[in-house]
């Protein structure tokens, strides 16, 4: 029990001391010191008719190829279906034996060293979303004990809670460069929302009435995949993404007048706000000073300002 308490204290301390990009590795290493294993898989995803679909899980000493090769056999994974039906319960089993009904699944478990398994998952049947942690030992002779199964079952909700706190803190840091106009959220690479402020959901629903609290709207997600470094400008909101290996950080705000500027108008506005004269802007963009003046008149009217000083102030205020 002392080992578990020490693990949890260190785990929650790491939430504030370790960057999110390193947090899952740190947590898994802490767990391994108390509960030895050879490989691990920790991630989120969804359930469909064929079973579990993982969205870029964190892999510890496990080949990325194992994810691709799991896809054709996931509909035969009885252990996964059991975990889906028994949320929060840790399963302790010799996976090749549990896969005897499927030669392909049995071969898969042996090929990747997924022999002894401690597998825990939490499935939300209302949304179809899930989270899971799987620990593996690559030996038939090194079975996990019942005490280790109970330990993993006790640790699992803390791992999930600590990860959520780490994600939330990172989302807050992502917002710090902006101001109170922005709401924030975190999604996995499959579009499942891991964390979202109520105001973020409210912002989404101004653009997509009835948008889910648990997933990025399809139109927004398709935009993110097609243009991961470009903000989405909708009819009512603007959403700015930031991608990491396993997550998508999102911040949203109501659409503003500056969002209506064309790319060229925004270029001119930014250069003028930076202090360049009309002639300097014209030279930089290889256009005539008269064209710059025409653009600026249109920009002032569209944004609702009277001069370049007011325009510069609007730009400073709008930057994320």
From TrEMBL:
<dbReference type="Pfam" id="PF00196">
    <property type="entry name" value="GerE"/>
</dbReference>
<keyword id="KW-0805">Transcription regulation</keyword>
<dbReference type="GO" id="GO:0006355">
    <property type="term" value="P:regulation of DNA-templated transcription"/>
</dbReference>
<keyword id="KW-0238">DNA-binding</keyword>
<dbReference type="InterPro" id="IPR036388">
    <property type="entry name" value="WH-like_DNA-bd_sf"/>
</dbReference>
<dbReference type="InterPro" id="IPR016032">
    <property type="entry name" value="Sig_transdc_resp-reg_C-effctor"/>
</dbReference>
<keyword id="KW-0804">Transcription</keyword>
<protein>
    <recommendedName>
        <fullName>HTH luxR-type domain-containing protein</fullName>
    </recommendedName>
</protein>
<dbReference type="GO" id="GO:0003677">
    <property type="term" value="F:DNA binding"/>
</dbReference>
<feature type="domain" description="HTH luxR-type">
    <location>
        <begin position="254"/>
        <end position="319"/>
    </location>
</feature>
<dbReference type="InterPro" id="IPR000792">
    <property type="entry name" value="Tscrpt_reg_LuxR_C"/>
</dbReference>
């Amino acid at each position: 029990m002392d080992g578990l308490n020490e693990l949890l204290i260190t785990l929650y301390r790491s939430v504030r001391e370790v960057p999110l990009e390193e947090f899952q590795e740190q947590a898994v290493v802490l767990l391994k010191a108390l509960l030895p294993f050879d490989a691990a898989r920790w991630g989120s995803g969804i359930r469909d008719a064929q079973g579990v679909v993982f969205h870029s899980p964190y892999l510890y000493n496990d080949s990325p190829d194992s994810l691709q090769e799991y896809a054709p056999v996931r509909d035969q994974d009885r252990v996964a279906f059991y975990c889906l039906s028994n949320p929060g319960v840790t399963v302790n089993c010799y996976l090749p034996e549990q896969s005897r009904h499927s030669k392909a699944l049995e071969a898969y478990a042996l090929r990747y060293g997924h022999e002894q398994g401690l597998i825990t998952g939490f499935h939300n049947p209302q949304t179809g979303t899930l989270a899971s942690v799987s620990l593996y030992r690559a030996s038939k002779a090194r079975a996990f004990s019942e005490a280790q199964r109970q330990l993993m079952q006790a640790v699992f909700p803390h791992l999930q809670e600590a990860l959520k706190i780490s994600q939330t803190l990172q989302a807050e840091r992502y917002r710090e460069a902006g101001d109170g106009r922005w709401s924030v959220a975190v999604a996995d690479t499959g579009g499942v929302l891991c964390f979202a402020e109520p105001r973020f959901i409210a912002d989404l629903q101004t653009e997509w009435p009835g948008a889910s609290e648990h997933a990025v709207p399809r139109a927004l997600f398709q935009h993110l995949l097609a243009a991961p470094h470009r903000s989405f400008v909708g009819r009512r909101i603007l959403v700015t993404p930031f991608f990491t290996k396993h997550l998508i950080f999102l911040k949203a705000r109501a659409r503003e007048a500056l969002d209506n500027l064309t790319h060229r108008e925004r270029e001119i506005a930014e250069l003028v706000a930076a202090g360049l004269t009309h002639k300097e802007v014209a030279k930089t963009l290889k256009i005539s000073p008269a064209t710059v003046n025409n653009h600026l008149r249109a920009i002032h009217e569209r944004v609702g300002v009277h001069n370049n000083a007011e325009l510069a102030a609007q730009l400073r205020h709008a930057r994320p």
